[in-house]
């Protein structure tokens, strides 16, 4: 069952609207961070963005509107088993080892890419500004040629989207 869950900024407690949730508890609250607090926290921390992301403790990729990954935190690099040189500037499907990204057309240009849940989720967040929490995305992964289920969350952060990998199965 999918419903709506209240979302508030963990810093200033400002309402951030509602997000989709598979939780059935109608009183559940999800915490995020509003744009103002995020910019304030990052600027006051004195840390470069990647170091700030490393401190989050969960795998996070930073995507631009063209689905290119700008950077990834330590946890994302570990789960993907990739160095930054194989992540930064590459399209999301290339970074996540999607089978379809290996075709000559590349990530985002095959018939299968039209229904890519990762692409749809990131694009929806860019277009609406809405945070999406724990949406199911299925990858046809290479080189293992197996389907991998991901739960992903997205949040607009300035001119990029933070793509969090919540669970891999």
What would your notes on this structure say?
- The protein is α+β, with helices and mostly antiparallel strands and 169 residues long.
- The protein folds into two domains: 1-46, no CATH class; 49-168, PAS domain (Beta-Lactamase), CATH 3.30.450.
- Helices cover 24% and strands 34% of the residues.
- The protein is built from five helices and eight strands.
- A five-stranded antiparallel sheet has the order 5-4-8-7-6.
- Strand 7 (146-157) and strand 8 form a beta hairpin.
- The protein is globular.
- The mean pLDDT is 84.
Q: What is the averaged pLDDT score?
A: 84
Bin the strand percentage. Answer: 25-35%
Based on helices, strands and strand pairing, what is the structural class? alpha+beta
Task: Please name the CATH topology of the largest domain.
Answer: Beta-Lactamase
What is the molecular shape? globular
> With helices defined by DSSP (H or I, 4 residues minimum), what is the helix count?
5
Order of helices and strands: EEEHHEEHHHEEE
What is the CATH architecture assignment of the largest domain? 2-Layer Sandwich
> How many angstroms separate the termini?
20 Å
CATH-assigned homologous superfamily of the largest domain: PAS domain
CATH class of the largest domain: Alpha Beta
């Amino acid at each position: 069952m999918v419903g709506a869950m209240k979302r508030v900024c963990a810093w200033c407690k400002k309402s951030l609207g509602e997000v989709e949730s598979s939780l059935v508890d109608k009183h559940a609250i999800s915490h995020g961070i509003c744009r103002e607090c995020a910019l304030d926290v990052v600027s006051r921390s004195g840390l470069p963005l990647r170091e700030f992301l490393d401190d989050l403790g969960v795998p996070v990729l930073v995507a631009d509107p063209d689905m290119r990954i700008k950077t990834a935190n330590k946890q994302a690099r570990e789960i993907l088993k990739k160095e930054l040189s194989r992540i930064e500037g590459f399209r999301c499907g290339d970074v996540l080892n999607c089978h379809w990204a290996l075709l000559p057309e590349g990530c985002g240009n095959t018939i299968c890419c039209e229904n890519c849940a990762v692409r749809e989720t990131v694009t929806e967040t860019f277009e609406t500004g809405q945070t999406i929490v724990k949406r199911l995305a299925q990858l046809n992964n290479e080189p293992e040629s197996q389907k991998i289920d991901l739960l992903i969350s997205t949040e607009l952060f300035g001119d990029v989207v933070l793509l969090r990998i919540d669970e891999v199965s």
